[in-house]
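quick q for whoever's on today - can somebody do inverse folding on this one?? i tried earlier but teh output was garbage lol. tokens:
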């Protein structure tokens, strides 16, 4: 049988690790077999494994690899898992079931499996038992008979690894059909009036000349996938992209603690993106791992202030009658800017070092009599975390939130952390984001010191999101 699952050998050994604020641990439900394609729905973890499910009858592919079946395990309140059970035994394929997905309301299930359910039928096929994506509906008696989706092919190519958008409109999957960009590409199908349309390639920005597999649509609108064609740490790495009005953004790699020199592929990410479960062969087998981010809290943040670069200048050592007669004070800022008077307000054009000179001038001849003082002044931004972003944006518009113009003095920033009122938590000096609903949002950006991790500073800025 041709099989679209990607299975790799050992490259790097790691049992658990912590790097800065990311902790990775191996799940206890792993076996000596392979585990992959995790999906957590209503505290139940679904995943695919090629562990034995029938001691009397076992099926293998043409390379003598054991075939995959779906398992489920309940995530308990104490973060432990119940004993895994084979999911829907007798209903799902006795051959490969690579991964599953559920519609937002849980009433539809999408299964990536071999087309033929019997050994006899699979042997009659000249193309082998290819993979396809099937749909099933939940009824009063359980799941309905699985329907073969229109973009599948029993003869020419595989389709597998389905994932569905939050609105149920788009179904993403992987295929090795002809005229793609690489060995396997990510495609999507749009549901129009209850019917799934043809397969459409996500394009060259996402699909490389190599392998793209295991897409996962996140509630934030990000599409997460595995690829060995976009650089990274080595082998397959996890990336994400965001759909904008102009197309899918360039793929962004996950943290280096998650992506290693081994292969990382297939994942589930929590709604707040602070933890997730993914597959990796870093310990020699395809096993499931959990990552957790420790996101710092920031309280009593100041409302961001804009820099005016305006200063008041005066000479407090001069007598009150110093300007009697034709004599006046003249201030010179830089080489050309001039102001007159004992007290003046001057606004500099921006950050920099400027010369300031105070002179006594005889107005009858318009000449300097003598210089009272001359010095340099360093004009700097206000010491604060500074958030650079538009004041107003539109719904579903991709924007950049940037903290690179922050002036933190001697604080020595280790990392920047972003908290958005729509529940988003992200780390980085610069991030990208899409607001999905209109309204007023407070954007919070905090910094943690590299010298003293308990020291923090933060600012907030209001953004208006309109239709």
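ok took a stab at it. sequence:
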């Amino acid at each position: 049988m041709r099989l679209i699952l990607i299975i790799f050998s050992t490259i790097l050994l790691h049992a658990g690790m912590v790097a800065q604020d990311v902790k990775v641990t191996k799940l206890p439900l792993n076996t000596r077999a392979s585990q992959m394609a995790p999906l957590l729905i209503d505290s139940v973890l679904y995943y695919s494994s090629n562990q034995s499910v029938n001691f009397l009858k076992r099926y293998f592919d043409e390379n003598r690899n054991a075939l995959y079946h779906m398992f489920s395990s309940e995530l308990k309140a104490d973060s432990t898992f119940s004993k895994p059970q084979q999911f829907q035994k007798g209903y799902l394929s006795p051959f490969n079931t690579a991964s599953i997905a559920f519609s937002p309301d849980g009433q539809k299930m999408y299964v990536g499996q071999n087309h033929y359910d019997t050994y006899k039928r699979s042997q009659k096929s000249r193309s082998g038992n290819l993979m396809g994506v099937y749909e099933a509906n939940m009824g009063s008696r359980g799941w309905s008979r699985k329907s073969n989706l229109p973009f599948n092919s029993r003869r020419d190519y595989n389709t597998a690894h389905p994932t569905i958008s939050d609105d149920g409109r788009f179904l993403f999957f992987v295929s090795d059909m002809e005229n793609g960009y690489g060995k396997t590409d990510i495609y999507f199908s749009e549901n129009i009036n209850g019917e799934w349309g043809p397969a459409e390639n996500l394009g060259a920005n996402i699909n490389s000349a190599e392998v793209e597999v295991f897409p996962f649509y996140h509630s934030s609108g990000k599409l997460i996938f595995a690829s060995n064609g976009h650089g990274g740490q080595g082998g397959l790495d996890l990336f994400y992209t965001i759909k904008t009005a102009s197309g899918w953004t360039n793929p962004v790699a996950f943290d280096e603690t998650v992506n290693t020199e081994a292969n990382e592929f297939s994942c589930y990410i929590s709604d707040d993106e602070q933890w997730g479960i993914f597959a990796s062969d870093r310990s020699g087998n395809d096993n499931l791992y959990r990552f957790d981010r420790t996101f710092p809290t920031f309280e009593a943040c100041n409302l961001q202030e804009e820099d005016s670069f305006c200063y008041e200048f005066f000479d407090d050592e001069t007598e009150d009658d110093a300007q009697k007669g034709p004599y006046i004070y003249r201030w010179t800022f830089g080489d050309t800017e001039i102001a007159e008077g004992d007290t003046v307000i001057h606004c500099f054009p921006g950050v920099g070092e400027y010369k300031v000179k105070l002179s006594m001038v005889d107005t009858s001849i318009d000449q300097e009599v003598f210089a009272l003082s001359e010095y340099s002044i360093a004009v700097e931004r206000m010491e604060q975390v500074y958030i650079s972003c538009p004041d107003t944006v539109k719904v579903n518009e991709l924007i950049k939130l940037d903290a690179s113009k922050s002036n933190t003095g001697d604080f020595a920033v280790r990392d920047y952390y972003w908290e958005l009122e729509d529940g988003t938590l992200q780390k980085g000096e610069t991030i990208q984001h899409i607001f999905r609903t209109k309204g007023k949002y407070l954007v919070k950006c905090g910094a943690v010191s590299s010298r003293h991790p308990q020291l923090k500073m933060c600012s907030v800025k209001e953004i208006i999101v309109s239709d």
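fwiw The domain at 16-293 is CATH 2.120.10.30 (Neuraminidase). also Confidence is low (pLDDT under 50) at residues 1-20. so keep that in mind when u check it
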